[in-house]
Amino acid sequence: MGTTKFDIAEYLDSKEMIAEYLNTVLEEGDSANFIVATGHIAKAIGIFGK
Q: What residue spans define the domains of the chain?
């Protein structure tokens, strides 16, 4: 049995989850974490396609 790569974007399935994720990154991360998080959010809402 193989493993799959974890993709946080798959779990950002509501506005509430996205807001919680972004708030956590803003509280605990730095500017690099924020940039990565915005990419995850963009993927979750379909900006890059699926």
A: 14-44
